[in-house]
Structures are given as structure tokens and as C-alpha cells.
Design brief:
Blueprint: H1 2-13, H2 15-28, E1 39-42, E2 47-50, E3 53-55, E4 58-61, H3 72-81, E5 86-90, H4 93-96, H5 111-121, E6 124-130, H6 159-176, E7 187-192, H7 203-216, E8 223-229, H8 232-238, E9 245-249, H9 256-266, E10 273-278, H10 294-306, E11 310-314, E12 319-320, E13 328-331, E14 334-337, E15 341-342, H11 356-369, E16 386-389, E17 391-395, H12 396-400, E18 405-409, E19 424-432, E20 441-449, E21 451-456, E22 459-465, E23 470-474, E24 481-489, E25 514-520, E26 527-532, E27 556-561, E28 572-575, E29 584-588, E30 591-596, E31 605-608, E32 620-625, E33 637-641
Helix pairs in contact: 1-10, 3-5, 6-7, 10-11
This protein binds 2-acetamido-2-deoxy-beta-D-glucopyranose (NAG) (6 copies).
Residues 476, 478-479 line the site of one 2-acetamido-2-deoxy-beta-D-glucopyranose.
Amino acid sequence: MVNTILFISLCLSFACHHVVNSLSVELDQTTLAGSDPSFVPDFNNRYFLKDGKPFRYISGIFHYTRVLPQYWALRLRQMKAAGLDAVQTYVFWNIHEPRPGVYDFDGNHNIIHFIKLAQQVGLLVILRIGPYVCAEWDLGGMPSWLLTHKDIMLRSKDTVYMSYVYNWLHVILPKIHPFLYSKGGPIIMLQYENEYGSFGGDKTYLSNLVEYFNNIIPAKDVTLFSTDGNSYSLLKRGSLTNSLLATIDFGIGTNVQNSVNELRKYSYGTPFVNSEFYTGWPDVWGGEHQKRPTEGILSTLNAILDANGSVCFYMFSGGTNFGFMNGAMLKGSEYSPWITSYDYDSPISEGGDLTEKYYAIRKFIANYRNVILPNPPVGDDKVTYGKVTLQYYGNIFHDYKDSFKIYTVKTPVPMEFFNQSYGYILYETVFETGDCKSNLTTTVNLSIQDRGHFYVNSELITILDRKSTNVTFHKNCSITMQVIQIMVENMGRINYQHRSVVNGDSTFNHEHKGIIQFQSDELITSWMITSFDFHHFMHDTLKRSEFYPEGRTQYCFYQGELPKETGTQKDTYVHITSPPFSKGVVFINNFNLGRFWPAKGPQKSLYIPGVLFKTHSTNYITLFETDNCIKSTTDTTVDLRDVPDLG
Ligand SMILES: *[C@@H]1O[C@H](CO)[C@@H](O)[C@H](O)[C@H]1NC(C)=O
Ligand SMILES: *[C@@H]1O[C@H](CO)[C@@H](O)[C@H](O)[C@H]1NC(C)=O
Ligand SMILES: *[C@@H]1O[C@H](CO)[C@@H](O)[C@H](O)[C@H]1NC(C)=O
Ligand SMILES: *[C@@H]1O[C@H](CO)[C@@H](O)[C@H](O)[C@H]1NC(C)=O
Ligand SMILES: *[C@@H]1O[C@H](CO)[C@@H](O)[C@H](O)[C@H]1NC(C)=O
Ligand SMILES: *[C@@H]1O[C@H](CO)[C@@H](O)[C@H](O)[C@H]1NC(C)=O
């Protein structure tokens, strides 16, 4: 730490000062009358040229989809007050095109509103269009309905994939075109693909992609760039030519000079940009809660800036994987979904609080640039509303199945083929008990993604996961027909995976959810499928039910009225403990807040943005519990507190 401080002050008094001054002067300068605004990388001087003057940026990532829009302006102002020049975000294709040709740009999907707010606050904008974005987001941001096309190859020049990419780019790029810096807007750069070098080296795919971009937005209008890991080989595989800007990413403790050398080896005159400088790290269910120390961030940041780097904090503002939007990773071959919180140990927390890390980074930037920053605006305090008792509201099989969409098919296929993208799916069939003399058991051989419950005549036979294959159970020879029910949860599609170099295939192409493969000893000719996508959840359609199916202790609802004080719309955290609860989804009124799984951890509470509460009518909290439905209502409470528990 002592070394770092010494280094900063040395830097301030000599070499860097020159740069800092020119930057701060440049930032305040308005465009000269008559000359168009311009932003380009300068491959001779390893800087950017903004309106003809040397420029580099300190920026931070804030994903609009992960924060409700009522909070966007405040967070952007907090980023500005930390001394940032720009905000970066991915653009999430799957939330904008939920069905092929059907588009959504409302609420927290209103990216144009986000861009306008950033400009009002005085931040430049860097958009990472993808179409693949990773981001710990379902299928890395690609729509899951792509998987209904047999043999589709995502992130490749495959014609089916590319035709949907083409359509999507023809929707998103014209929308943002008027907001480019060269047109008087805040957007200085657009990223194509994302860390493609870690996936494949298909240059035809990359050049087709860039061609699509340039056919819609002329190359002179905006700087296109790629981001890859900090090595020559990844850069070479993941970026197109060295006439386009290639940037790298790395976290704390990295040897910055080595990274710069790798970049120079690839593109000698390129400006050095770390597009993902990790302030924290995401968590998986069942894993340790991740943190990254502030001292490490400051010392690596110092080294990046001293190397004349531009930088982007990933993340600067945390957020939430609301609903079912979390992705998953493979730990070795182990499927590991990300938790609901995307706090990320960020400078601005999931709930919008300014952390010590925020203040330390802000102070560092003010010193480094020798500028005085405005005081950051702060949001309202979080509130402890106290304990809420929930009532049992019935079992989904018994009380609610009929109000969801039902299909009849000959063989079980994944949810995507029923136009279902997220949530739970139930497969039901009957089979004839058959030969009870020579064998008293029967076996079905199946694969599911990701987790499920297998019932025969309402009795739980086993809990399934992605590794399950055979399920063997007793036949009941005193009856002729037996009922099989298989309920499967989609826990989030893998968002990051290598491509096989052998045949170009990747896990992405096989992230269908539900039953993936099924065979049985007995003849089965018909299935009934129920889609529980909770797309339009209506808490007021739930009804108290006294019926408690014997032995069926999964998939039920609990609901409670929240205290009147929630009408103040102050943020809070709902703490859900195991027992009595185990795993499921929480709704506030009709909003799907996300998954809870206290039995697994590390996350034990969920952030509730106060704007979800109604001001003049009763507020409801509903739990859909999938693992541990208990009869007693005396101890089914949740606790609304002013602090989170992320483990
Ligand atoms: C940073 O840029 C300045 C101005 O162009 C230059 O004099 C200096 O050598 C550069 N420093 C490094 C480490 O590249
Ligand atoms: C899925 O949606 C398409 C239209 O996008 C429709 O043609 C098809 O019938 C739907 N499939 C099912 C199973 O509802
Ligand atoms: C059960 O018996 C039937 C009829 O004899 C036979 O076709 C089937 O393969 C047997 N199943 C097993 C698991 O042994
Ligand atoms: C059961 O499934 C596994 C894994 O998919 C497979 O290896 C095995 O051959 C299957 N058994 C039968 C009888 O199909
Ligand atoms: C599954 O059952 C089949 C017989 O039905 C058997 O051949 C196969 O080895 C079993 N697989 C596993 C993984 O137990
Ligand atoms: C078989 O089914 C009969 C009739 O439903 C039931 O009474 C009996 O308990 C069942 N036996 C087993 C072993 O599940």
C-alpha cells in the first residue's frame, strides 16, 4: 500500500500529469463550431482522439436489465460523481426479442431511455452489442428459441443462426444509430461478439458479423471493438484484423506490463484498453461468496492508468438476476447456476448503496486526475419492515395445474418446443403395468436439464439432476395403469463455454430444458405437458387451500400480506430461512423477484426494490416452494430487513 501511494504521487508530479491535464481540459471543452463530433482510436499514438484531441476513458459497467428503471438516473449520477467518463452495458438480445420477430423495449428493457439518461448525466456510452454477451445471463444473452432449430450452431457462421442475428441487428442498430457520438449522441464505441477468442477462431463468422454492423452503421460513424483475454493467442482468435480496435480484460493482481506486451504483439499501435477490470466476482449456488479487496483494485488500476490505459470496471454498479434470467457455468463438468444476486462485490451494491470500495475508487480517480469531484448523491436508507407470516396456498399439481398451458404430445421434448423459455415444465403419462410375473420393477432411461422430481402415482421416486440416467421403480401389480409425473426446473442456461475444436459443436447448442431424452421398458404413446413459465403471474388468482396432499411435499405456494409501511416504497431485503423454506421463487405482487435456495446458499436474502410496492393498496409476497412444503403455518415466516445476507 505504501508503495502504491508513493507511485501515485510520483505519477502526479511528472509524466501522468501532462496526460491528466490534457484529458480534463479536453473533457470540458465543447465541440468547435462547424466541426462534427468525432471519436476514433489513434493507432499512431496509442490513444483515442475525441474531437481531434487525445483522450482515454475510465468507465464502469451497469447492466440496465439488472436494475429497475426508476433507479437508473441516480446510479448514473453516482457513477459520474465517482469520476467516470463513460458507462458500459451489454445489450441483451434475449430480453429484447422474447419470441422470433416480437420485440420488447419497455420498462427495464428500455435501452434508449437508458442511453438518454446517461447523456443527460454527462456520461459517454459504450455498448457491447454481442449478439453473444456472456454476462452470467441465460444462454449468454442469446434467445433460447434459437434452440428449436435442429443442428443450429450458435456463435458460428451457421446460416440459420446468422439469419436471426441479421434480423436482430437490423432492429437494434437502427434504433441506436441516432445516439452515436458522431451524430451528437453519447455512444462512442460498439462491441461485436464477446471474448470470442476463448470460444472459437472462426474468422468468417466474425467478418460476416462486422459486415452486418457496417451495412447498417457506416464504419466512419462509430468505433467497433472486440474484447478478449489478455494473451496474444486469444486476441488472434477473437478479433478480426488489427485495423479494428482490440481490447483485453483482466482482474486484480495481473501483471499489467505483460498484458500490454501481449496486446502490442497483436497490434503495435493500438490504444490499451482493459474492457473488464473485475471489481468482484459472481457467486454460484452452493459456492463460497466472492469478494475482491479494494487495495488490490487500486494498485492494479494505478498500473493500468500509468500504462496510459483506458479502463472499464466490471461491474461498477451491481444488480439482480430478476426472474429466471441467471445463466450457469460448468465447473469442470459440473453444471453450476449463478445465484439471483448480481451484487458482484461492486462499488455500488446490488441495492444501490455506495460502498467503501466506491469511495476509495472515487478518491483515487480524483487524486490521479487532479480534479475535484461533486459529492455523490445517495438513495434512501433501506428499511426493516419485520417478520411476515405466510399462509399455505395449495399445491400446484392439485390446485393450479389447470390454469396453466397444457399440450398433448406423443414423446416428451424440451420446453423450447412448447414456446416456453423459462420456468418449470411438467411431463405426465400413464403406462400399463404389463408383465408382473417375470419382473416386478421397471426402468426408464432419461436425461433432463436441469433438476426435477420423478413421481409414480404421486409418490416421489427420486430427485433428478443433469447426471441422472436410469430410474427404476416397483410396478404396482394390483392396478393396471400407473401415472408417471416428471417436473423439471430450468435453472438457467450455460452462458460461457468453449467450443469443440473437433466439430465446432458447443454446450450452448444443447442447452434445451426439460426432458432431453427418454426411453422406457413399457410402451408409452401419449404425454400431457404443462408449462409453468410464470410469465404472467397473478398473485390474486391464488386461493387458500386446506388440501395438503399426503406425501407430496413439493411445489406449493405460500402467500402473505406485507405491512402497510411497505407503502413508503423503501427498499428492503427479504430473508428466507431453511427450514421452513428450501428452494423456489419469490414474487412481490406480480413481479418475479428471482430464485431462493437457502438450503444451498450462499445467498440467504433477496433484494426488494421499493418501487415494487404499491402505495395505496395491500402488498403481497408469494413464495413458490419446490422442495419442502410443510403443513404448519405457525413457523412459515420471512423477515424483511434493512441489510442483505449474501453469505
Ligand atoms: C503515455 O503517453 C504519453 C503521452 O503520449 C507518453 O509520453 C508516455 O510515454 C506514455 N507512457 C506509456 C507508459 O506508454
Ligand atoms: C410456437 O409459436 C409458433 C409461432 O411463433 C407457432 O407457430 C407454434 O405453433 C407454437 N408452438 C406451440 C407448441 O404452441
Ligand atoms: C420385463 O418383462 C418384459 C416381458 O417379459 C420384458 O420385455 C422386459 O424387458 C422386462 N424388463 C426388465 C427390466 O427386465
Ligand atoms: C441410458 O442412458 C445412458 C445415458 O444417456 C446411456 O449411456 C445408456 O446406454 C442408456 N441405456 C439404455 C438401455 O438405453
Ligand atoms: C440403465 O439401464 C439399462 C437397462 O435398462 C442398463 O443397460 C444400463 O447399463 C443402465 N445404465 C446405468 C448408467 O445405470
Ligand atoms: C397398489 O395400488 C393399490 C390400489 O391403488 C393400492 O391400494 C396399493 O397400496 C398399491 N401398492 C403399492 C405397493 O403401492
